[in-house]
Specification:
about 140 residues; alpha+beta; Alpha-Beta Plaits; 4-stranded antiparallel sheet; about 45% helix
Length: about 140
């Protein structure tokens, strides 16, 4: 039982240790923040989803990139369309909640919601993301 409890506590203890290390040294912990990519059919849907994300404080910043061409397979057929792409800057710990929320409001059957961890960046900008997005 002690081993099981130790293994279950490891992620929590590791997280606390990394937060303490970051606070003491002032260094950024790679992967603390992420950029999520969300595709949208048109600019109005993109703005509506971006505003909804911001209203729920699931992100510090959302870019709405202009229309781009897309090629993809859907139900075995090659499709071509245009789309608007959202770049969502947030805490990595919010990606699950962000994904669940966007799926609940997105008109696509299977919306693109993927994320990449931020390795490094401007420390002041990363701190601003931290301050803008509440902890879990």
């Amino acid at each position: 039982q002690v081993v099981t409890l130790s293994l279950l506590m490891y992620p929590v203890l590791r997280s606390l240790a990394l937060q303490l290390h970051s606070a003491v040294t002032g260094s950024y912990i790679s992967g603390t923040h992420s950029i999520a990519f969300i595709n949208c059919l048109n600019e109005q849907i993109a703005k509506d989803i971006a505003r909804a994300i911001m209203d729920k404080k699931l992100a510090a910043y959302v870019n709405i990139l202009p229309k781009s061409s897309a090629l993809y397979f859907w139900k075995g057929e090659l499709e071509e369309s245009t789309e608007i792409l959202l770049l969502v800057k947030t805490r990595t710990s919010k990606i699950g909640e962000l994904s669940d929320y966007v799926r609940s409001i997105h008109p696509f059957e299977i919306p693109e919601i993927i994320s990449l961890p931020v390795d490094q960046g401007n420390p002041l900008y990363l701190k601003w993301i931290e301050e803008s997005v509440p902890r879990d």
